[in-house]
């Protein structure tokens, strides 16, 4: 009927779970570890799939999944079907939920999929607060709620959450579930109704939600060939423009991690031969990850590089798992000894990381590290190391190896990933990618349980926390890291000297003055930060400008938090202005600060803990991370007393101080 009879118009995508742990097998499906970034990714993804001129109609129906706090698949025998994620309220509010909220409120997604796991003892697909309370009532989901496939069956047969299958059907439907991906509800709902466990009004609600989405998709509008996109067919898929788009997407995703002495890009005028070595050097299907479509064509790394220069190919390992018996060092070392340059392409594939397969180590699989080191030592010339993977690795041995001049991470780059890699290595494209995840040392996987859901560090036990927002250890490479073939200079052009936050306008608790972080009230409290970015090098290039916020050091707030970003393209010596307009209160609440403060006020109505809001904000500037707003003092509104919370050394070159005062200017 649609898509040449090969598919419908509902696509259960995007996967938008936050990458809490680097070992998660489904890293290749996720956009990263930052809740703000994931929210922007998901809402943009959904709008791209769904949006038409008529906001009530749908092009296709997207689905944000897997709701919520889901990122353990199968780790050392702990399976997602039985895993109970113990999550604090603060972590839930500022880490696991914000991206889903953005997907619903900003993206207007047509469906949300609940996950297999339990959260604090309740299966997500049976949690009325999460489904009816949050998705429906708070966020106003305009669509249906669907289970992950067979997860209602899992609630009864794997988790033993209910005594009977009818009770499992009832508890999910009554919680707000509208659709079962599976046959469990089809088999057991009727009896649940007959025994009084489910009322017909709940069935009416679920059916209505599903049929509304079908109507918005045009399922009842007649012959689909006569509708707006009815003329589309196979001829529209593999067009030159679409194939170039695949190549461009791969180019933009490549991250340059190391480039000693500006070794890259290579010049075909001086390089006559390249040894291309590694288990991922000539792969096809591995490049497109999982839940993949059928590519128009493939260009492998070996094929892409061979278009520019003569190549000598050696696999080195028979497979990406690279057990000792499949390590072929002699051929690899001989190839490296003959060529002017050696390019090693290693990493992972779905035999290492995928759904239902979590990693247990952050080291390169099998004997790959041995292959890299031995080939680097035998190489006649410098070595370029290319990592093809979703998750990060502890490659500290390569980072510190002087023979390895450059390191590139290419993710799973898609059908023309090999051509994109060659474009970067030989300089027709200047890399601009930044890491969406932290690359941790192997000690993290040795000492930290994947099942420990805590985001925040615990100094009493040595627990280091997770993601760049909380991790107190030293990463191999940090979130947001990425080099370029050119250089950039930043300067602050505009930032307000005073942000005035009046209190009492939107009182949330009777024992203290509070403020709201929503609606027009927040718009009135937004402020503008203008940054001048200049390309000071000799090559054109793009730069992602990241705006971070550092909240007060109270209530286990993050070390810093991304609150905006913008990518700019600049010719040599060209300059552009980047304008950010963040909301101060939303920045606070994104860090879990205002929610935590309000909780404490509510619990301590005798005013032993008065409601606290920041007194001083400082924009601190560094050429590499742009602006980091830093709250250095807090203000006690009830007593009007001031208390200095922390006095950090001035690590930045410039400071602009903002006063935040209750109801006036100081």
Automatic annotation (TrEMBL):
SUPFAM superfamilies: (Trans)glycosidases (SSF51445), Beta-D-glucan exohydrolase, C-terminal domain (SSF52279)
Keywords tagged on the record: Glycosidase, Hydrolase, Signal
Gene Ontology annotations of biological process type: arabinan catabolic process; xylan catabolic process
Glycoside hydrolase family 3 N-terminal domain ranges (all copies): 11-208
UniProt xrefs under InterPro entries: BXL, GH, Glyco_hydro_3_C, Glyco_hydro_3_C_sf, Glyco_hydro_3_N, Glyco_hydro_3_N_sf, Ig-like_fold
Entry GO CC: apoplast
All residue ranges annotated as the Glycoside hydrolase family 3 C-terminal domain in the record: 254-485
One of the record's GO molecular function terms: xylan 1,4-beta-xylosidase activity
Record-given protein name: Beta-xylosidase 1
Organism: Rhynchospora pubera
């Amino acid at each position: 009927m649609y898509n040449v009879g090969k598919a419908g118009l509902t696509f259960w995508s995007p996967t938008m779970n936050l990458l809490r742990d680097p070992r998660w097998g489904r890293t290749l499906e996720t956009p990263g570890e930052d809740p703000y970034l994931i929210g922007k990714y998901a809402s943009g993804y959904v709008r791209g799939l769904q949006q038409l001129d008529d906001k009530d109609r749908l092009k296709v129906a997207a689905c944000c999944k897997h709701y919520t706090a889901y990122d353990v698949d199968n780790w050392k025998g702990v399976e997602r079907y039985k895993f109970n994620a113990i999550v604090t309220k603060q972590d839930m509010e500022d880490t696991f939920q914000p991206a889903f909220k953005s997907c619903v409120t900003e993206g207007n997604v047509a469906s949300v999929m609940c996950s297999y796991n339990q959260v604090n003892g309740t299966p997500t697909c049976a949690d009325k607060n999460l489904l009816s309370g949050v998705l429906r009532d708070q966020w106003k989901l305009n669509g249906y709620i669907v289970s992950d496939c067979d997860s209602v069956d899992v609630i009864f047969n794997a988790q033993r959450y209910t005594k009977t299958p009818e009770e499992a059907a009832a508890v999910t439907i009554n919680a707000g579930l509208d659709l079962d991906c599976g046959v469990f509800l089809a088999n057991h709902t009727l009896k649940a109704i007959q025994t009084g466990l489910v009322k017909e009004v709940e069935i009416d609600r679920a059916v209505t939600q599903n049929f509304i989405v079908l109507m918005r998709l045009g399922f009842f509008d007649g012959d689909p060939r006569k509708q707006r996109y009815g003329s589309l067919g196979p001829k529209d898929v593999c067009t030159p423009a679409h194939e170039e788009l695949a190549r461009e997407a791969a180019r933009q995703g490549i991250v340059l991690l190391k480039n000693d002495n500006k070794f890259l890009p290579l010049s075909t005028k001086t390089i006559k031969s390249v040894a291309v070595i590694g288990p991922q050097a000539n792969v096809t299907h591995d490049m497109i990850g999982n839940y993949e479509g059928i590519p128009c064509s493939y260009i492998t790394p070996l094929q892409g590089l061979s278009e520019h220069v003569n190549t000598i190919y050696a696999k080195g390992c028979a497979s990406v798992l690279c057990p000792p018996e499949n390590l072929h060092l002699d051929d690899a070392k001989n190839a490296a000894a003959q060529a002017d340059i050696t390019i090693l392409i290693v990493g992972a594939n779905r035999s290492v990381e995928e759904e239902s397969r979590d990693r247990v180590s952050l080291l390169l699989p099998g004997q790959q590290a041995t292959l890299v080191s031995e080939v680097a030592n035998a190489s006649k010339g410098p070595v370029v190391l290319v990592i093809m993977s979703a998750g990060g690795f502890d490659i500290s041995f390569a980072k510190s190896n002087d023979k390895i001049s450059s390191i590139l991470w290419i993710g799973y780059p898609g059908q023309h990933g090999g051509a994109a890699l060659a474009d970067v290595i030989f300089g027709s494209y200047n890399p601009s990618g930044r890491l969406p995840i932290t690359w941790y040392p192997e000690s993290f996987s040795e000492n930290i349980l994947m099942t420990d859901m805590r985001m925040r560090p615990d100094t009493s036990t040595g627990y280091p926390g997770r993601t760049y927002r909380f991790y107190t250890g030293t990463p191999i490479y940090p979130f947001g890291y990425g080099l370029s073939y050119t250089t950039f200079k930043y300067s602050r052009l505009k930032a307000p000297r005073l942000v005035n936050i009046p209190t009492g306008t939107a009182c949330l608790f009777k024992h203290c003055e509070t403020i709201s972080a929503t609606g027009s009230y927040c718009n009135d409290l937004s402020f503008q930060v203008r940054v001048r970015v200049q390309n000071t090098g000799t090559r054109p290039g793009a730069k992602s400008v990241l705006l971070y916020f550092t909240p007060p050091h109270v209530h286990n707030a993050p070390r810093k938090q991304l609150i905006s970003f913008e990518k700019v393209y600049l010719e040599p010596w060209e300059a552009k202005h980047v304008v950010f307009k963040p909301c101060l209160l939303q920045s606070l609440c994104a860090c879990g600060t205002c929610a935590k403060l309000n909780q404490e006020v509510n619990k301590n109505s005798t005013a032993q803990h008065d409601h606290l809001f920041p007194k001083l904000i400082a924009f601190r500037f560094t050429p590499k991370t742009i602006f980091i707003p830093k709250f250095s003092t807090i203000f006690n509104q009830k007593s009007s007393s001031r208390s200095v919370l922390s006095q950090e050394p001035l690590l930045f070159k410039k400071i602009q101080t903002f006063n935040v005062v209750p109801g006036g200017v100081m």
